[in-house]
Design goal:
Blueprint (H helix, E strand, L loop, with lengths): L1 H28 L13 H10 L6 H13 L2 E3 L13 E4 L5 E4 L13 H36 L4 H15 L2 H15 L12 H29 L3 H8 L4 H13 L1 H15 L3 H6 L6 H9 L3 H29 L7
Antiparallel strand pairs: 1-3, 2-3
Helix pairs in contact: 1-13, 4-5, 4-7, 4-10, 5-7, 6-7, 7-9, 7-10, 8-9, 10-13, 12-13
C-alpha cells in the first residue's frame, strides 16, 4: 500500500504539472491581456502595469516565476512583514517566531488590494461546507434508494425510486433551485431563499446541488447491486442461514459500492469546489462565482489558482477512491 500511495503521489505531481502548463498556455494564447478589456490605457501606463506583474517577460520565464512562488515553501524569520505580493495560503507557526509559508498564488489583477490566496481562503470554506452538505444529501438519498429498488426489483418501490432518479438526472440545478426557493421559501416560508450564515441557509442549496448527484448514485447502486445479488458467494451466505439484512449489508452492498465509489471521486471534487449556478441562485459567497468572473476578466493568477485547486481536489479524491477499493474488495491488491 505504501508503494502504491507513493506512486500515486508522483502521478499527482505530474498531473498538476501538465494541468498548470496547459492552463498557462491557453490563458496567454487568447489575444489581448488582462488590462485590454478596460477603457483604453495609455501605452506608458500599460508598460508599467506589464512590468509590475511580470507580463513583459518571456512566457517560459513567467511560468517558472509563477510556479516557483506556488510550489516552493518559505520559512520566514521573526518580524517578517507580509506584502501583497507575498500572501501565502498556508501559514504554520514554528518555534522562535519563525513561520512556514506555502502556496503564494500572487495578487489578483482585478481586485488590486486582494491576493488570490486571500480570496481562496475567504471563499473556499463556504464552498466546502456547502459541498460537504450536498455530498451527504447525495449519499443519504442515492444509496438507500438504489438498494431498495434493487431488492424490490420490478415492484412499485423500484419504479418509484428509478422514476425519481430519472427526474433528478433530467432536471438541472437552474430549474430545481428556483423551484425549491418558491416552494419552501416563498410559499411555505420555512427556509430562507438566499444568503449564508446559519444551517437554515444551507438546506435548500445543499439539496438542490446534491439531489442531481443522488440520482446518479441511486441508478449505479441499483445496477451494481442487481449484478452482485446473483453471485455464488451471496447464495452461499444465504444457504448458511445468515439473516437477509446481514447478507445485504456485509456481502452484497459492500462489493456493489465499487462502481459508486468510482464516480464518487469526481463528484466529491466537483461539490467541494463549488457550483457557480447554485451559488448565484442562492446568494452563497462561494468560490464558484470568483472562478467564472476570473475567466471573463482575464485575471491570470486567479484562473491558475482556481484550476490548480480543482485539479488538486480531483487527484486527491481519485487517490482516496483507489485506496478504498482494497477495503471494499479484498481481491484487489496494489503491491
Amino acid at each position: 500500500m505504501g508503494k502504491f500511495i507513493f506512486r500515486r503521489f508522483l502521478w499527482m505531481l505530474l498531473v498538476l504539472f501538465l494541468v498548470s502548463v496547459v492552463t498557462f498556455a491557453l490563458m496567454h494564447s487568447v489575444p489581448g491581456g488582462p488590462f485590454s478589456r478596460e477603457k483604453e490605457v495609455p501605452p506608458q501606463i500599460l508598460e508599467v502595469l506589464n512590468a509590475k506583474y511580470n507580463l513583459d517577460a518571456p512566457l517560459v520565464q513567467q511560468y517558472v516565476d509563477y510556479m516557483s512562488a506556488v510550489i516552493i515553501p518559505r520559512v520566514t524569520p521573526p518580524g517578517w512583514t507580509r506584502t501583497i505580493s507575498e500572501d501565502y495560503l498556508l501559514n504554520i507557526g514554528l518555534p522562535g517566531d519563525y513561520a512556514f509559508r506555502w502556496m503564494n498564488f500572487g495578487p489578483s489583477f482585478r481586485e488590486r488590494n486582494r491576493t488570490v490566496s486571500n480570496m481562496i481562503a475567504f471563499h473556499l470554506p463556504v464552498t466546502a461546507q456547502l459541498g460537504f452538505a450536498a455530498l451527504l444529501v447525495a449519499l443519504a438519498i442515492g444509496v438507500p434508494a438504489g438498494t431498495i429498488a434493487a431488492l424490490n426489483r420490478n415492484t412499485m418501490y423500484d419504479y418509484v425510486g428509478m422514476g425519481i432518479a430519472i427526474v433528478g438526472v433530467s432536471v438541472s440545478t437552474i430549474t430545481s433551485g428556483p423551484l425549491l426557493q418558491y416552494i419552501f421559501g416563498v410559499n411555505l416560508k420555512v427556509l430562507p431563499i438566499s444568503g449564508w450564515g446559519s444551517w437554515e441557509f444551507m438546506v435548500l442549496p445543499a439539496f438542490a446541488l446534491g439531489f442531481t448527484e443522488s440520482a446518479i448514485i441511486a441508478r449505479l447502486t441499483r445496477a451494481s447491486l442487481l449484478q452482485v445479488l446473483n453471485e455464488d458467494y451471496v447464495r452461499t451466505a444465504r444457504a448458511k442461514g445468515l439473516r437477509e439484512s446481514y447478507v445485504v449489508v456485509f456481502h452484497t452492498l459492500k462489493n456493489a459500492l465499487i462502481p459508486v465509489i468510482t464516480v464518487l471521486g469526481p463528484i466529491t471534487a466537483y461539490l467541494l469546489t463549488g457550483s457557480f449556478v447554485i451559488e448565484r441562485i442562492f446568494g452563497v459567497p462561494g468560490i464558484g462565482e470568483a472562478f467564472i468572473t476570473s475567466i471573463s476578466n482575464r485575471d491570470y493568477p486567479l484562473i491558475m489558482g482556481m484550476v490548480l485547486l480543482f485539479a488538486f481536489f480531483l487527484v486527491v479524491a481519485n487517490t482516496i477512491v483507489d485506496i478504498a477499493y482494497a477495503w471494499l474488495d479484498p481481491r484487489i491488491r496494489f503491491d
